[in-house]
Amino acid sequence: MAGEHPLLSTEIVNRGVTPTGPDAGSPTFSVRVRRRLPDFLQSVNLKYVKLGYHYLISHGVYVVLLPLLVVVFGAEVGNLGREDLWRRVWEEGTDYDLATLVAFFSAFVFTLCVYFMSRPRPVYLLDFACYKPSDDLKVSNAEFIEQARKSGKFDEASLEFQSRILKSSGIGDETYLPKAVMAPGNCATMKEGRAEASEVMFGALDELFEKCRIRPKDVGVLVVNCSLFNPTPSLSAMIVNHYKMRGNILSFNLGGMGCSAGVIALDLARDMLQANPNNYAVVVSTEAVTFNWYTGRNRSMLIPNCFFRMGCSAVLLSNRRCDFFRAKYRLDHIVRTHKGSDERSFRSVYQEEDEQRLKGLAISRDLMEVGGHALKANITTLGPLVLPVSEQLLFFATLAWSHLFGNNNNTTTTKSKTKTPNKPYIPDYKRAFEHFCVHAASKSVLDELQKNLELTDANVEPSRAALHRFGNTSSSSIWYELAYLEAKGSVRAGDRVWQLAFGSGFKCNSAVWRAMRRVKRPATGPWVDCVDRYPAQL
User: Fold this and answer.
1) Which has more confidence, 168 or 107?
2) C-alpha to C-alpha distance for 333 and 327, rounded to whole angstroms
3) Is-contact 361 351, C-beta < 8 A?
4) Half-sphere exposure of 231 (CA within 13 A, CB side)
5) If residue 319 lies in a helix (H) or strand (E), which one and from where to where?
């Protein structure tokens, strides 16, 4: 337990005046103990640094060799005068026969062909759409508790617990919930799950196809991810059937992958595009609130009720070189981290039945800690790919120093044993990215991430705004945040965007985009009628 003390924080909560009981008329207080993210930038594992440099070197070999060849050739030519160079080309060159020249140019052309055919094709993001439900599905925090009480599915203790969670959640009063969750009776049915999935997926895809002006039959790859609702036929089959897509489409349906599945789906779509040139890929990310609505008394399973809301995103990717001129972004990097081999990480977000055999999603008390370790591994691997050389040199030097000489401070004296180790250099990720889209899980998670990564309020503004306006929309939240940046007119040519998502497993995944042009404020989208209210409402 002694090692866990730095991960705990306490808070004194004023519960007000008790109206009944032996303490009636007296003010009461309670002490709340919270877990927080570990200070993961203070302890870095070298194997993740090595993994990041492995990615960098394996993909940058051509960038290193080409300048080297140019330097060698330039040095050779620089030693020759104009007359010597002219004599070698026109006089001595006559000594070469036709076969030698043909062989040389054949080898040169063959090398160029191998290079251009082996290098990965760039993957472009043409556009994306985020579904905005109708206003009749809006629910405020007060209405949430009132409707939950009227539904008769919760006792007073569960209602009070959910009310306390909502007050500190960072969620505003304009999020969206399916009507079925507050209706009497069981809402976690296949019928209601399909109805919600159809509404959000088809709504996002209709907008996407209209914005991009392409036909559904033009799409060659379809990847759908939804963690908790996986019917048969699959959600991807529902989309193929609804839009009458072509018969040879490569369709995939990812289930149980958690809130980070959006980046996993991007990775799969990218691989499919590399194997299938001149193609379009659509990635759909959503979550079904209805099918996993919990009506029991287990508090760890009541937490998802308070955070998860309706939402869906649809993204159109292309590897066609002619789309270079109309693309919004180019995909630069994807880095995935999986901590499922650790038992605590594996069970930190776990779907199971409670004592009354009611199905729900249990959130472990260890979630913040295991999430911090996954984040540490992911950003350490990502660092060598994106950080400027100056940041990498400082970071690597201090990291090597701490690993080589960090134990020299320990002596046999009691005083030296309690000495605080030197604080390593924390890389400034603000120098690697202009924009941050961090998964909007909860206010407390965003607070800890902002503190550990030393981000400014402006850096986490998109995440806080998305959480406040739309709630936790699971794997699609990072797209609502990018839509917020576009609605603000913040994205300019050359800007780098970091999408960071984390979820059950435990997994932490990053996607890095580069803006191809200045993105104009969209005429449609989820933020059109409310973006001017932010960040004032946060």
Assistant:
1) 168
2) 17
3) yes
4) 20
5) none
pLDDT number for residue 98:
62
Cα–Cα distance measured from residue 14 to residue 30, given in angstroms and rounded to the nearest whole number: 7
Q: Which of 138, 168, 224 is nearest to 475 (CA)?
A: 224
| 3-state class (DSSP) for residue 508 | strand
Secondary structure of residue 289 in the 3-state scheme = coil
The answer to whether the beta carbons of residues 225 and 236 sit under 8 Å apart is no
Q: CA distances (Å), 118 to each of 111, 115, 123, 274, 329, in order?
A: 11, 5, 15, 10, 22
Q: Identify the residue whose tokens are 């932490």.
A: 508
**What tokens does 285 get?**
């990310």
For residue 518 the two structure tokens come to: 């200045």
* CA distances (Å), origin 205, targets 62, 232, 311, 433: 39, 21, 12, 29
Provide the annotated active-site residues.
259, 338, 435, 439, 468, 472
With contact defined as beta carbons under 8 Å apart, do 513 and 495 qualify?
no
Q: Are strands 221-226 and 250-254 parallel, antiparallel or unpaired?
A: parallel
Strand (E) positions, 354-462? 359-363, 435-438
Task: Evaluate whether 443 touches 168 at the Cβ level (below 8 Å).
Answer: yes
At residue 324, the 3 state secondary structure works out as helix
**Residues 307-353: tens digit of each pLDDT:** 999 999 999 999 999 999 999 999 999 999 999 999 999 999 999 99
pTM: 0.81
φ, ψ of residue 267 to 5 degrees: the values are -60, -45
* Whether the Cβ atoms of residue 42 and residue 421 lie closer than 8 Å to each other: no
Distance CA 499, CA 323 (A): 23
> What is the identity of the amino acid at 112?
L
pLDDT at residue 38 in the model: 54
Residue 81 above 70 pLDDT? no
Residue-wise pLDDT tens digits, 431-451: 899 999 999 999 999 999 999
- Cα gap 312→285, rounded to integer Å: 6
Q: Left (φ > 0), alpha (ψ -120 to 50) or beta: where does 310 sit?
A: beta
What distance in Å separates the CA atoms of residue 328 and residue 276, rounded to the nearest whole number? Answer: 21
Residue 455 phi, psi dihedral angles, 5° rounding: -90, 155
At 105, the amino acid letter reads: F
Q: Which amino acid is at 457?
A: D
Which is nearest to 310 in space by CA: 193, 168, 150? 193
Find the helix or strand (DSSP H, E) in which 522 lies: none
- Contact between 83 and 415 under an 8 Å Cβ cutoff? The reply is no
Contact assessment for residue 475 and residue 503, using Cβ atoms and an 8 Å cutoff: yes
Which residue is listed with tokens 């799950």? 193
Q: What share of the chain is helix, strand, coil (3-state, %, to 5)?
A: 50, 20, 30
Q: Are 289 and 229 in contact (CB under 8 A)?
A: no
pLDDT over 70 at 1, yes or no: no
Closest Cα partner for 451 from 44, 42, 168, 39?
A: 39
The structure tokens listed for 135 are 């206003």
Put residue 189 in one of left, alpha, beta given phi > 0 → left and psi -120 to 50 → alpha: beta
